[in-house]
């Protein structure tokens, strides 16, 4: 391992959509940089493929199947991550959402009312 690989040593990253495409590429890159990566997505088989790829290169990955459109699933994933690693340092949300039965506006509105917490990163809000 070269020195640049250790830039994210001791960091914990959660990557949604980590089973394929850009999410998978991000998860692999974070692991190559030394992060311990929690792989989040709905398809456990694809997450396992990503985890094997990371492990083959000496990285650490934990598979966490999760439907990010379901608040309880997300809470469970965060709780399990905290129990395993003690914290979350990096969050990459790359999951696609293809759930016509639950409009995005209803789910985003829940977040708009959330109170900021120390150490919590803030992103953009819904345009609604």
**What's the CATH H-level homologous superfamily?**
NAD(P)-binding Rossmann-like Domain
Tally of structural domains: 1
**Mind telling me the C-alpha Rg?**
15 Å
End-to-end separation in angstroms reads 47 Å
CATH topology: Rossmann fold
Q: Which CATH top level class fits? A: Alpha Beta
Number of alpha- plus pi-helical segments: 4
What is the H/E order? EHEHEHEH
Report what the structure shows.
Helix 1 packs parallel to helix 2. The protein has a 4-stranded parallel beta sheet, sandwiched between helices. The chain has 4 helices and 4 strands, in the order βαβαβαβα. It is globular and about 40 Å long. With 128 residues, it is of the alpha/beta class. The protein has a single domain, classed as Rossmann fold (3-Layer(aba) Sandwich), CATH 3.40.50.720.
